[in-house]
Design a protein that fits this description.
Layout: E1 11-12, E2 16-19, E3 26-27, E4 35-41, E5 49-56, E6 60-63, E7 69-77, E8 80-84, E9 90-92, E10 96-100, E11 106-110, E12 115-122, E13 135-138, E14 145-147, E15 150-157, E16 167-174, E17 190-196, E18 199-203, E19 206-210, E20 215-218, E21 224-228, E22 234-241
Antiparallel strand pairs: 1-2, 2-20, 3-4, 4-5, 5-12, 6-11, 7-10, 7-12, 8-9, 8-11, 10-13, 14-15, 15-16, 16-22, 17-20, 17-22, 18-19, 18-21
This protein binds (2S)-amino(carbamoylamino)ethanoic acid (UGY) and manganese (II) ion (MN).
């Protein structure tokens, strides 16, 4: 989508934000040597997580985050491999992803130019629930299932649903003309990245045209609805905090 001079589609409100690529800001961080980072969603907005894009400017090796932080990584481009607990490197290929529970010793190896999407948040432990297992997989291994019986709106859950997991990361695929069945409002929050296609996103009382590579933060109780318009499918990756009592 073209921007006029001095304008942006990015918008920041109390319960939501739309972050369009024209307003990405590149930074470096000590924990990501040799990489440029573009933070899309951070706790500074009010979110309980960070969602950011990473591009390696040289071959880079990245260590696990600080204790208590869980991490999800989706390969976007280039050579990306991971090692867990000192085991052999495993390569992430097309739409490959990895989930590292908190305190899971691991390394991410990125070749020069490789790109990944990263989500990190502080784990919410649950008494008597074992820590979740690390996962290395790819999106295409999950059979899409219709959401609420509508075959024009397909869902893939990338993480298992055991008690140890305190988050969901899903892929939602909308056929042209499909929409969410109602305006959702819930206590969970979302981080969303549009992977393909576009449509209209309702966030609180605003309606936004959205396109591939846009990111959205939906805070708790943000009224939300999406309708896919255009010729192709619209498809997004969506995080939500999950499986934990809101008290
Ligand atoms: O899982 C969800 O809450 C999802 N249906 N929300 C959304 O797509 N905005
Ligand atoms: Mn929702």
């Amino acid at each position: 989508m073209r921007q006029s001079f001095g304008e942006t589609r990015s918008a920041f409100h109390r319960r939501h934000a739309l972050i369009s690529p024209d307003s990405h800001e590149r930074v470096t961080l000590p924990a990501w040597p040799g990489c440029g980072l573009k933070h899309l969603i951070t706790p500074a907005l009010g979110a309980d997580f960070s969602l950011f894009l990473v591009q390696a400017d040289a071959d880079a090796t990245i260590a696990a985050p600080e204790s208590g932080v869980e991490r999800f990584v989706l390969r976007q481009d280039g050579a990306v491999s991971i090692s867990i607990d000192g085991h052999d490197l495993q390569t992430l290929d097309h739409e490959g992803y990895a989930f590292f529970p908190c305190d899971c010793e691991h390394q991410i190896s990125l070749s020069d130019g490789a790109r990944i999407l990263v989500l990190e948040r502080r784990y919410q432990p649950l008494a008597n629930a074992a820590l979740p297992e690390p996962i290395v997989n790819k999106i295409s291994t999950h059979e899409p299932v219709p959401m609420k019986g509508d075959t024009r709106l397909m869902l893939q859950k990338l993480l298992p649903s055991g008690d140890g997991y305190d988050l969901e990361i899903n892929i939602m695929d909308f056929a042209p003309g499909a929409s969410l069945p109602y305006v959702e409002t819930h206590f969970m929050e979302h981080g969303l990245v549009l992977l393909n296609g576009g449509g209209i996103y309702r966030l609180e009382d605003n309606w936004y045209p959205v396109d591939a590579n846009d990111a959205i933060w939906m805070g708790p109780y943000c009224p939300q609805w999406f309708g896919a318009i255009g010729h192709g499918h619209a498809r997004y990756l969506i995080y939500k905090n999950w499986n934990r009592d809101p008290l």
